Amino acid sequence: QEQLVESGGGLVQAGGSLRLSCAASGRILSGSNMGWYRQAPGRGREFVGRMIWGTATTYYADSVKGRFTVSGDNAKNMVYLQMNSLKPEDTAIYYCAAGPLGQGFNTWGQGTQVTVSS
Predict the structure, then answer these.
(1) How far is CA 110 from CA 5, 61, 65, in A?
(2) Chain-centre distance of CA 37, in angstroms?
């Protein structure tokens, strides 16, 4: 069973940047979905962005489009979420997720906290 471990969360002021990392325990197969979700206090889990591994195809939630970027390093089996122009409403626990293309996400990390102060 593949495992995902996130890192890079923390406290940042509004307008700042953070880069989250997600380490996969095994080789990520080409064509897999690799993505990021988040969950703010009192709210459900929300899609942030995803990429199709081995391609340049990415998708983003409207709330983060133009500010966040999902990328990957095939040699290191790492997925990243670059977050710029952060807003207080971006405060949440961020989760890395993986799954076969077309079948949704079936593997999740433990999450990393991101707090954006105003």
Answers:
(1) 7, 21, 24
(2) 6
Buried b (16+ CB within 10 A) or exposed e, 41-53: eeeeeebbbbbbb
What's the CA gap between 62 and 4, in Å, rounded? 25
Reported confidence tier of residue 61, pLDDT bands at 50, 70, 90: very high
pLDDT tens-digit readout, 89-101? 999 999 999 999 8
Tell me the pairing of strands 4-7 and 92-99.
Answer: unpaired
pLDDT at position 104, please? 87
**Residue 91: how many other CB atoms lie within 10 Å:** 18
Give strand pairing partners of 23.
5, 78
In whole angstroms, give the CA distance from residue 97 to residue 79: 10
- List, for residues 68-92, the tens digit of each pLDDT value: 999 999 999 999 999 999 999 999 9
